[in-house]
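LOG
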Amino acid sequence: MKGDNSESSFCIRKLTKTEIPEAHSLAWKVFCEYESPDYSAEGTESFRKSLNDPVYLSGLDYYGTFDGSKLVALCTIRVEKRHICFMFVDGSYHRRGLGSRLIRHVLNEYKGESVTLNSSPYGLPFYKAVGFVATDEEKTIDGIRFTPMKYIPQSKE
């Protein structure tokens, strides 16, 4: 049932190496549509460069949500630091719970561990809603605006 909003119509899984270029294309498309308007030209260029920097991209695990064979959401995590680097959902799939399901899937992969990320201004309400808390004020580095955040798992006491 492609396009259906039911959870069963979407598949979340780790991406293969051959799917990574598609993931970068999705990240760039969503960034340009939703993030870039809040950034300077320097910030947009810095983000574009990160998508093409093999050193920056090394050590990332890629997870995606698929609607049939179409990648519609992406989350990457830098494994050794437990740091989410990219989190993007195709605009036509916003407000359907896909981002929440995807990030919970990734957090579940690191169950019991703290996970960090740097939220864009656009993503801040989403990350707060899924349980991340700001650890500092907004910063701007190389034109990229972000708020450092951390997810601390709840203890089962």
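LOG (cont.) second protein
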Amino acid sequence: MFQSARDPAKSGSTRVLSLREFVLLIALVMSLGSLSIDNLLPAFGPIQANFAIADPNDLQLLITTYMVPFAILQTVYGPVSDALGRRPTLMIGLTVYLIGGVVAATAASFSMLLIGRAVQGAGLAATRVLTVAIIRDRYEGREMARVMSITLMVFIIVPMLAPASGSLLLLLGTWRMIFATVLGFAVLVAVWFYTRMPETLHPEYRRSFAFGQIASAVRTTISTRVSIGYATGIALMMGCLMAYIGSAQQIFETEAYELGVLFPLVFGCIAAFMGAASFTSARLVRRLGMRRLSHIGICGFTLVAAVQVGVAFIYDGRPPLLLYVAIFAISQFLYSLTVPNFNSIAMAPLAAIAGTASSFIGSYTTFVGALFGLVIGRSFNGTVIPLSLGYLCLGAACLLVVLWTEKGRLSLRSQPEQGAAKRALPVAAE
């Protein structure tokens, strides 16, 4: 069973967590970030009207101002968690997030709303770092990839439902109700985590919060070819996701396809394909391995992106809705086969510095992804061409990075990978 509720080096009571509860709790903590973005998308129009924003592209700042501190603060939470432990560090982050949520919900101007979003991002940076570190504390190799995929499968339910729930809340009240509801959900998740999740940091991996040790851990991460290579691949793929999230409302709800209230349905269908991919990855990763599965994913993603660009140009930037959604859903399916396994491969050699390594990788991938996403999103011109070109360019660049990392060879055959066993203090399989 999931053993110690505390640092194993200390005395005290224990908590018992089943694999099912562990996965669900980690997924809900992860989902706070997605919920804080996707739930807000239907509110772009009301927010634009409320604050008399002339350029609708400026609404993408609601995503960017969240993502930039989300990226930067990850460099802090990882080293802090290596020193203090995962539990207290995550609780600090959630507290900051709640403060930002209050500021955003009560904002009297668009500038104040952006400040609240920035504080929210700064707080939730802890969830990006620590959910990965907690899983890495407990698992290695293909088993880590399997648990990560199962977690993401549960996590994907949130973006499937978030726009629809945001639209429903808009029917019941104003956009401020969206922030208030998410705040309530965050409080429930924080209480559950605090009362049920034990400390997972192994005593032998506890590190002092010293610049020299942090710098050494970062150097180790950067100098590990597999880690920095696959982290760069994640960053490029995240650029695609950020561009999609930033452009989705304009593409589907307003300017390109003008779906209006049907936008959440399309958004949820695409998210469902991502969830199906996470389920598929969890089923196949033990048999095929992380490399083979993710290499199939990135090759397929790049090919589908090429088709996506071709279709976009053939139809002058507005392909038939069902055709474009079908192609896009396939690309998101392949995205979700790729990125979780990239993440597991990047973290595999870094068990002794999991917190700081997860912090650096998370910050690096989020910042680069947000930057690419902003550039592509701001290029929106009323058609799907900028987004499609962005997917192709970033997908091809990711494939080249993987080839560099693997010294020109992709894994076409299943191979044994290091560290397939669970770490000490494992969660019991059910």
